[in-house]
Amino acid sequence: MPLYKIIKPNTFTTIFVWKISESYEELYEEVQLNQKSGLRLSGMKSQLHQRGFLSVRKLLQQAGYSDFDLFYDESGKPHLKDGKPISISHSHEFSAIIISEETVGIDIELQREKIIRIADKFVNSTELNRLQSFDSHDYIKKLTVKWGAKESIFKIRNEKGISFKNHIQVNTFELEDKETIAQLNFEGVAQEFKIVFEEFENFTLVYAFEN
After folding, report:
1. Cα dihedral sign for 169, 122, 162, 18?
2. What DSSP assignment string belongs to 26-54?
3. Which residues pair with 170 in a beta bridge?
4. pTM value?
5. Residues 158-167: pLDDT tens digits?
């Protein structure tokens, strides 16, 4: 069974991680989709994205929900009908959801050299110069944590105009710390977040709690 792991960061929160080894057909047969989800799935051109989408529905089942319990608001943010905060992510052969009684966001990313080419788009020059002092392996890992932290925070606030580079700052951390703090300053509102991260199979999982 490709339920990869369950993480319990606190009493109120559960993270479910799926390793996507099934075919599209296998996943499709094992889930039921509401009409909107069915249309969304059929509009996806990549089978990788389709399998990620369906694996998230498998994770919902693990959490005691179904696709019929999930809906999206006008900005595309997911919600559960019972009101519990949820956040969703998938990347290549992994997907993850986080369900809590607190405000949460999650991101999972494959660690890739590609992130070096786009680093200046989401990290300011001072921080980029500091990170470049690390060896290339840790540089990629640290950039991936920073991207995941900013993506997780964006999923919480989910407003147009938020710049990863200018509005979200992640405090200095070491990879062995497994957590750090980040701040979002946007349109006169300052928010602080606890960031937690871990690695497995060349992927980085990051999740954020609003302090």
Report:
1. negative
2. HHHHT----HHHHHHHHT---HHHHHHHH
3. 182
4. 0.94
5. 988 999 999 9
